[in-house]
Every structure is written in C-alpha cells, then in structure tokens.
Design goal:
463 residues; alpha+beta; Outer membrane efflux proteins (OEP)
Length: 463
C-alpha cells in the first residue's frame, strides 16, 4: 500500500468514525426541490421561482406551471418517496458505526482467601478494518437515493403538467360540445315546426332529432371526461375539500414560435439521465459490498483488547480472540453482492436502450404534432370559416336552407374540437421532450393518459 493510498484509507476511516457519533440529518427538501427546478430550467421548462403559499397559488387561475408548483408543495405521495432518502441515510449511519467493545469478567473462589478476579475488554478489529469500505458502499446508496428523490419530484411536476393540459382540453371540448348541442337544438326545434307545417318529411325530422340526441350524449360524455380529468389533477396536486375549487386559464396556450432544441435530444437525454446515474451509484455500492463480503469471508474474525487478572496481585496484558474461517468464507454474502452488481449493470444497459428509443420517438412526435397544429391554423380552420361565411351569404340570398347553414357551423365546431385535441397532444409531446431533457424518461402511455408512476395521497389544500 502506498502512502497516498494509506492516507486516503485512514481519512475515510476517520470520517466514518466521526460520522458514527451522530445520527442521520433531516432530509433537506429545499435542496432537492432546487435541484429539480434547476433541471427543469435546463430542459426549457418555465420553472421560475414562485410562492409556496397554497392559498395564493389556488386563489389565481392555475397554469400548467402553477399546478406543478401546487403538486410539489402539497403532494404527500412524493414525500413518501423522498423518505427513501432518510432510510438510506439511516442505513449509512448504521454502516458507519464503530463496533461496540465487549467486556468480560470472572470471579473464582479458592478456600477462604481473596477471590481471583479476571476482567477483559475486546473490540472487533475485523469490523474496524472493513468499516471504511462499508461506509463507502452505504454512501453510494445515499447518493442513489438523492437522485431518486429528485427524479420523483421531476416526475410529479411533469405528470401534473400533462394532467393539466388534459383537463384544460377537456374543459374546452365540453364548451364546444355544448355549442354543438345548442345548434342541434335549434335545428331540431326548427324541424319540428316545419314538420307540423308540412314543409319537410318525417324522415327529415327523424334525422334532425337523431343528430340532436347524439349531440346530447356527446356533451354528457365530455362533461364526465372533464370531471374525471379534474379529479385526476386534484390527486396529483394533493387537494380535497375546499382546496378543489380552483379555476384554470380558459384556453390551452398557443403553439410557441420557437421549438425546443431537439437536434441532440438523444445525447442530452443520456448525459442527463437520472436513471442511469442511479444505476451507476448502485453498481458502485454493490461492487464495494462485494469486495467487503469477499474480504470478510477470508479474513479471520479478529478481536483484540486487554485482559487483567488478580490473584495475589494484578496482572495485565494484551488479549486476542480469533475465529478461523475454516468451514465458511462468506460465499453467500459475496454471491448476493455480486448478483446485485450484475443486476445493476444489466439495468443500466436496459435503461440506456429504452431511453434512446424514447428520445428518438419524442423528436418524431413533437415535430409531427407541431406540423399538424400549423396545418390546422393555416389551412383547415380558415377553410371552415370560409365555408361558414359563404353559407351565410347564400342563406341570406335564399340559395340554401337553414339546415345547410347550421350544418356548416356544426362542421366548423367539430374541426375546432379536433384542433383542441391536437393542441393537447402537442403540449403533452412537448412535456415529454422536456422531461427527457431534465433527466427523466416519461411513462409509456397513450396520449392523454397522465397516470403518475409515483404514489400519491390527497390532503387538504386550502381552507
């Protein structure tokens, strides 16, 4: 062992000795939130600092970002995940502990003289030798737990943003379905009057009434979807009771003029991946545990100390106790640690492959969603407006009937509804890309599915 290596070993041992004198510190949630916000800012999200006061946040119309802030402040499920860091730190404290000394004593009586006394104190030297390695392995697990906690906060923020866009779109679609129903109601009423006057056939009346009934069912389905999406968002934000009376901005945001820089998304996603960093830390911890288990298996369990004996006078001297690893050399512990090490290596490779595929898919999806939205804005929506305008002119000139005019307006609303759905899909795709840039892989789900991978629990949010 060189002097420098020995110095590092003793430095690590000294730190472990000092750390063993105190328990694990409380989790610094502020530092974890700051780390998550820094990653979101780096990814292009508008994670600007805002108040942590729920009353203030909920008193204003929510945006995607303020909804995410509410979730980060108020969601109890993510707090449960963060406590894994506290568990890891407590286990690290356990790994850094100094072995407690053992005391022995004996008293023997011979006749009527003074009893013979024998006392001894021993400490496990083998544990002391392996202390630094075990502490280092536990430290790697703590670092992995910190990264996992930051990842849980990021997942919650992006899950909430996706759920917000879904809810916002549902509210818009409900209003559009209500507009369609009003048009069909007017059409059905007009058809009834015309049929009573004998100006249309029974078939024409049945067609108009059928369209009205279908529109009514579509509105009911839209209202149910909006209520379900709102409750899903309530769960992510951890709200119940009076805290659920929040309002949102009325419309989905328009497509931004500048898109995210996606040229190197795959490389950036790999470089910033928290999952890969967690796998690396856990591989390092498993490797160190494997080394410690292998060394412990072949090292004799050595205890050293002092022994004192009194017969007529006190006699003091060193004492040694040794267990020879004759029948068992820690093969089980070593095998477990080595399997864990291989497991993390395979997991790292698997995550890297899936992450690269997600990044490539995110680039394609975001580009396609943007192109579709621009097509709606530049071509389809103006065409539908032109059809309505021309139909109004021809109706005024008595060239077409009212049914044809109402049908043109209904078609325009249906196109607007499709545009809202594509808007929602675009913002979800953009959120997925930002999540990759922040270091987390978005969940594999269909468009509009915002089920969180982190456990959640609703709590009272505002009174």
């Amino acid at each position: 062992m060189t002097g420098r290596t020995g110095s590092r070993r003793w430095s690590a041992l000294s730190l472990a000795v000092l750390a063993s004198a105190c328990g694990p510190a409380a989790i610094d949630e502020g530092a974890l939130l700051s780390a998550a916000d820094a990653r979101r800012n780096e990814a292009g999200s508008s994670a600007a600092p805002m108040t942590n006061d729920l009353r203030v946040l909920l008193s204003r119309p929510l945006t995607a970002e303020s909804a995410a802030q509410v979730a980060l402040v108020n969601n109890r499920g993510v707090r449960a995940v963060i406590e894994e860091l506290g568990i890891a730190e407590a286990r690290a404290t356990q790994a850094r502990r100094l072995p407690n000394p053992t005391l022995e004593g004996a008293m023997r009586f011979e006749g009527e003289g003074r009893p013979e006394l024998e006392v001894g104190a021993m400490i496990d030297v083998t544990d002391l030798v392996l202390l630094a390695t075990r502490a280092s392995a536990a430290g790697a697990e703590v670092e992995a737990a910190k990264l996992s906690a930051v990842g849980a906060l990021l997942d919650l923020a992006y899950d909430t943003r996706r759920a917000f866009y879904v809810h916002q779109a549902s509210a818009e679609l409900t209003e559009l379905r209500r507009t369609v129903l009003r048009a069909f109601t007017a059409s059905a009423d007009l058809a009834t009057r015309l049929r009573e006057a004998g100006n249309i056939t029974e078939l024409d009346l049945a067609n108009q009434r059928s369209l009205f009934e279908e529109a009514r069912l579509e509105l009911q389905a839209a209202e149910l979807a909006a209520a379900t999406d709102r409750e899903r968002l309530n769960v992510l934000m951890g709200l119940w009771g009076r805290g659920t009376r929040w309002q949102t901005t009325p419309r989905l945001p328009q497509i931004p003029a500048r898109e995210l820089g996606l040229d190197e998304l795959e490389a950036k996603a790999i470089a910033r991946s928290l999952d890969l960093a967690i796998a690396r830390q856990r591989f390092e911890g498993a490797a160190k545990r494997a080394n410690a288990a292998s060394a412990q298996g072949w090292l004799p369990e050595l205890k050293a100390g002092v022994s004192a004996e009194r017969s007529d006078e006190w006699a003091v001297g060193p004492a040694v106790e040794i267990e020879v690893p004759l029948f068992y050399q820690g093969q089980g512990e070593t095998g477990v640690a080595q399997s864990e090490m291989r497991q993390q290596r395979h997991r790292y490779a698997d995550v890297a492959v899936a992450l690269r595929a997600s990044a490539r898919s995110a680039v394609v999806q975001l580009a396609a969603k943007r192109e579709t939205l621009l097509y709606y804005e530049r071509v389809l929506l103006p065409l539908k407006q032109q059809v309505v305008d021309q139909s109004q002119l021809e109706y005024n000139a008595m060239l077409i009937g009212l049914f044809q005019l109402l049908q043109a307006k209904r078609d325009q609303v249906q196109t607007a509804a499709a545009y809202v759905e594509h808007q929602r899909d675009y913002w979800i795709a953009r959120t997925n890309a930002e999540q990759l840039l922040a270091g987390r892989r978005p969940p594999e789900s269909v468009t509009g599915d915002t089920r969180s991978t982190a456990p959640t629990q609703a709590v009272e949010g505002s009174h």
